Amino acid sequence: MKILTSAQIRSLDQFTIQNEPISSLDLMERASNAFVGWFCNQFVNTRPVCVFCGKGNNGGDGLAIARLLSQLSYDVQVVVADYTPNASDDFTQNLDRLKTHLNLAFISSADQFPTLSSQVVCIDTLLGSGLSRPAEGLLAGIIHKINALPNKVVSVDIASGLYMDKANGENDPIIEPDHTVTFQLPKLAFLLPQNVRFTGEWHVVDIGLSGKYIQELPTPYWFTDKKAAEKLIQPRGKFSHKGTFGHALLLAGSFGKMGAAVLSGRACLRSGVGLLTMHAPVCGYDIIQISSPEAMVSIDKNDRHISQFPDLEPYSAVGIGPGVGQEPVTIALLEELLDQVKVPLIIDADALNILSSNRSLLDKLPPNTILTPHPKEFQRLAGESGDEYERLELARDFAGKYQVIICLKGANTAVILPNGEVHFNSTGNPGMATGGTGDVLTGIITSLLAQKYKPAEAAILGVYQHGLAGDRAAEQKGQIALIASDVVENLGW
Ligand SMILES: NC(=O)C1=CN([C@@H]2O[C@H](COP(=O)(O)OP(=O)(O)OC[C@H]3O[C@@H](n4cnc5c(N)ncnc54)[C@H](OP(=O)(O)O)[C@@H]3O)[C@@H](O)[C@H]2O)[C@@H](O)CC1
Ligand SMILES: Nc1ncnc2c1ncn2[C@@H]1O[C@H](COP(=O)(O)OP(=O)(O)O)[C@@H](O)[C@H]1O
Ligand SMILES: [K+]
């Protein structure tokens, strides 16, 4: 799915109106119906509702939603923020359509804010995608009052006061909803951790905007949903054999951190690779042989840390990093590997930290190498950034400069390609914030690379399947009990 800017969404709106064709009022009705469809599934009609409206089209949606909900026997109250004499046309028309018996008040001061029982569900339609400056005055006052309520709050399209595609100021008044129900496409703002308070759980409802036009609109931002991910999976041919699926080499583990190697190795095997060789220090030999009988082991001359790698000729992909430490022998190994490797490569964990502290190695990274930093590792690699929008730009610059693929890990891991495309992941949960889950991801992506998935596809699909396995694991165990081994055991393709 594409992620568009608010300007692009405006033009999409106009294109749909002109070419479907549909009147803007009918499109607003369709959007409002889509919202109401979601709302009725979430809240029964014994819950009273208060709709807070601005005077733009977001407020117009609010008026239409109020009418539709009252037709469904919800007890609806409407509060219009009378902050401007200029209302949008569709707002005015929907005001006319509202039956006079509806409980409707225009307020011009936050002191007129209604007293609401805690059962009331607040619907926020003060400001939508047309936000052009921070809310102030009356709107800010209402936003603060709503945020101070214990009530459930649902924002329509986007929380009022939140920009869709750029950073807000630290003290901007913004609604803090429990849910955001957004139209047609996810919005960039929802995917950045700094906005979590202003997003709540978010849901996309289809309002039939032109698919053809969406296809034409250029954007660097994408959202990997189930459909996009499943399209990438390569089915197995009937006559395929283990040679068809490549031979992965994983360089992982050190004394005290052999678990990282085992987790990534097991994840690699569970992701379809034909053969796996794990290269480890002497201390890891028994551990790997016993825990992963499907893997072959190549043993280093060094007892505790890896210092060499086997002849690369047999391998179709190489993964390095989980649990390797940053000993001088391992730094030397990485440098030599970068000089020699001719097959796709993924670099994780301490191997990334080695790159950060030996920056001349960055210039040796083969094109399309995959780097999988968590935010701290990324900071060491690319430097500080003011906020997450800036960090994204920094990552795009870095990926372009070094022609590498960056998986910036976290909730909604962002896969950033050398051409500047950013693919946000849709799977995963906070249960995965536990040691070793990153090692699992490295194993999965190494496996896909060995199977000859293109690096960009291996990164996008690997990140998606990793999160999906985490979601399945959380269903079984709950998020709190989840450990990295559960993610491995729940991989399913
Ligand atoms: N395609 C879709 O997705 C569809 C979208 N639809 C709905 O339309 C919504 C977008 O509507 P919209 O463009 O009228 O924007 P909205 O935010 O309601 O108001 C903008 C007005 O507010 C003003 N204004 C801005 N900032 C302000 C501030 N801080 N304080 C005070 N005023 C401020 C701004 O003034 P200006 O910037 O011109 O000075 C302008 O007059 C969208 O979110 C969705 O709910 C559906 O109905 C149909 C399909
Ligand atoms: N809140 C979260 N929601 C979704 N995924 C998460 C969350 N927290 C962590 N993860 C995922 O878990 C993994 C953690 O990786 P990392 O920090 O490298 O862990 P480790 O080094 O212990 O293996 C990443 O893939 C990340 O995307
Ligand atoms: K809103």
Automatic annotation (TrEMBL):
A Pfam family: YjeF_N
Keywords for the protein's UniProt record, in alphabetical order: ATP-binding, Isomerase, Lyase, Metal-binding, Multifunctional enzyme, NAD, NADP, Nucleotide-binding, Potassium
Cofactor: K(+); Mg(2+)
Ranges where the YjeF N-terminal domain occurs: 9-215
Binding site for K(+): N58, D124, S160
Known catalytic reactions: (6R)-NADHX = (6S)-NADHX; (6S)-NADPHX + ADP = AMP + phosphate + NADPH + H(+); (6R)-NADPHX = (6S)-NADPHX; (6S)-NADHX + ADP = AMP + phosphate + NADH + H(+)
Residues engaged in binding AMP: K409, G410, A411, N412, T413, G438
EC number(s) reported in the record: 4.2.1.136, 5.1.99.6
The keyword Nucleotide-binding is assigned to this record: yes
Boundaries of every YjeF C-terminal domain copy: 225-493
Cofactor notes: Binds 1 potassium ion per subunit.
Binding site for (6S)-NADPHX: 57-61, 128-134, 157, 260, 323, 374, 439
Keyword NADP in annotation: yes
Highest taxon of source: Bacteria
Protein role: Bifunctional enzyme that catalyzes the epimerization of the S- and R-forms of NAD(P)HX and the dehydration of the S-form of NAD(P)HX at the expense of ADP, which is converted to AMP. This allows the repair of both epimers of NAD(P)HX, a damaged form of NAD(P)H that is a result of enzymatic or heat-dependent hydration.
HAMAP family in the cross-refs: NADHX_dehydratase, NADHX_epimerase
Subunit structure: Homotetramer.
Record-stated family: Belongs to the NnrE/AIBP family.
Name of the protein: Bifunctional NAD(P)H-hydrate repair enzyme
Organism, scientific name: Dyadobacter linearis
Gene coding for it: nnr
